[in-house]
C-alpha cells in the first residue's frame, strides 16, 4: 500500500510538467497524454526496484525516448507514403487507371515478398534514411550484414521489375 501512495504522489507531482515536456516534441495533446501515461506504466512496472531520487530523471528520459520513437514512426509512415506515391505515380499523363493499379500492386508485392529482417532494414535505410551503421547498432549486427540485406532487397526489387517489365 505504501508503494501505491508513493506512486500516486509522484504521478500528481510530475504529470503536468511531463505533459508539457512531451508537447514540446509531439505538438499533439492526445499523443502527449499517451506518452506520459506509457512512461508512468514503465515506472509502475519497475517501481519497487527504483530509488526515489531517480524516478523523475527516469520519467523525463522515458518521455523523451517515447516522443522520439513516435516521431520516428510518424516520419516512417510519411516516408513510406511518399515512396509509395513516387513508385506508383504515372510517368506521363497518358497512364491509365489500370496501369496505376498495377504499379501500386507491384510496390505492395515487392515489400510483402521481403522477409524480416530484410524488409525492416530496407525500410529503415531507404524510407527512414538511417545510416547503415545506425541500423546495424539497432539490430546488434555488423554493417556488412546490413549491406547484405540491402543487396538482397534490391535484388528482389530488380527481379520483380524484370518480371513485370517496368
Radius of gyration: 22 Å
Poorly predicted regions: none
Structural class: mainly alpha
N- to C-terminal distance: 66 Å
What fraction strand? under 5%
Largest sheet: none
Helix content: over 70%
Average pLDDT for all residues: 84
Strand tally is 0
Shape: elongated
The sequence of SSEs as H and E is HHHHHHH
Total of helices: 7
Spell out the key features of this protein.
166 residues, elongated
Topology overview:
Blueprint: H1 2-26, H2 29-46, H3 55-88, H4 97-113, H5 118-127, H6 132-139, H7 143-164
Helix pairs in contact: 1-2, 1-3, 2-3, 5-7, 6-7
Structure explained in plain terms:
It is a single chain. The protein has 7 helices and no strands. The chain starts with a helix and ends with a helix. With 166 residues, the chain is mainly α.
Short description:
This protein is mainly α and 166 residues long. It is 81% helix and 0% strand.
